[in-house]
Amino acid sequence: MIDADNIVQKSMNLFPEQIKDSFEKSFILNIPKEYRQVKNIVACGMGGSRFPHYIIKELFKKEIKIPYIINDDYNLPGFVDNNTLVILSSYSGTTEEVLESGKEAYQKNAKILGISSGGPLKTFLESINAHSFYFDPIYNPSGQPRVGFGYLIGGIMGILLNIKILDYQKDEIISAISGVDIRNIEKEAEQMANKIFGKYPYYIVSEFLTGVGNAIANQTNETAKSISSFRIIPELNHHLMEGLKNPKETVKTSLFLFFFSKLFSSSIQKRYLITKEVVEKNNIETLWYELKGENKVAQSVELMTFGNFLTMHLSMLYGENPATVPYVDYFKKKLKGI
């Protein structure tokens, strides 16, 4: 076990509190009823403020009845108008792409909501009198967005329930958040980190867990300073299986970690088993992790928690500092100087 004083460890232990705090507060925001009439959603965010939208979008794919687009560059889609809900998401409030998208959304007369801890984004949102949720990240002492992304998860769910775009039982969400077994999940994640150390992990996900796979790949890059990918069943069955032979040196370091759920549709469950067989026929190592939660929300929170600890322990094995992102910081500094 990592020292309890570790700042990243502290944040990860508080992950359920992050979600619950922002969920309960965003759910009671005073948002005009006209926001319930929007025809589509465009969520703007990058990195640790982007993948929470992907998680929610895939988790509630059947419950959200209008198009939900993730916008991860400087420009908004051409269809954005006064019937579009544009959600500006930036943990720090400094994200350049989100700020530019916000200005364009205002020009297009879109309905704007913000989620942030403050910064220039808060200044912009207040200048246009936009309705927003500002969280106080007391449950993320690390200060890193990818470690405090529970605030975005809870905030997005609370807002979508608030404006009745998401049709789901609030009590079931609260129960899923409260039911996280932090101690046992960390133990399993630490064991898994030892197994994938030194490998190029491919995280295999499907259906309602798709967005969480993206999050874990992101955290592996930033927290563990290790290369990774996430792939989706059934999409990978149409091409990736033929790409497992070459180059030989890359294949030797590859590892497929299958995140499996008995809540997946029967067709997907069959595909998992056959895909695992095909990967092993190519002499590539496979690992299997089965989610235990009673419903899809519980399993999603479980896997988010697992991914937090998996990547933290992996960073320690590599001798990396999970609390810093030196190359991301270097890039941003250089960009400002141009």
Describe the structure.
By secondary structure, this protein is an alpha/beta fold. The chain folds into two domains: 7-177, Rossmann fold; 180-317, Rossmann fold (3-Layer(aba) Sandwich). Helices cover 46% and strands 14% of the residues. The chain has helices at residues 7-13, 15-27, 51-59, 96-107, 119-127, 150-162, 170-178, 182-196, 210-222, 248-253, 266-281, 296-317, 326-336, and strands spanning 40-44, 68-71, 84-90, 111-116, 131-134, 200-205, 229-232, 254-260, 285-290. The strands form two sheets. It has a five-stranded parallel β-sheet with strand order 2-1-3-4-5, with helices on both faces. Keywords: Isomerase. Belongs to the PGI/PMI family. This is SIS domain-containing protein. One of its GO terms (biological process) is carbohydrate metabolic process.
Question: What's the structural blueprint in terms of helices and strands?
Answer:
Layout: H1 7-13, H2 15-27, E1 40-44, H3 51-59, E2 68-71, E3 84-90, H4 96-107, E4 111-116, H5 119-127, E5 131-134, H6 150-162, H7 170-178, H8 182-196, E6 200-205, H9 210-222, E7 229-232, H10 248-253, E8 254-260, H11 266-281, E9 285-290, H12 296-317, H13 326-336
Helix pairs in contact: 2-6, 3-6, 3-9, 4-5, 7-12, 8-12, 9-12
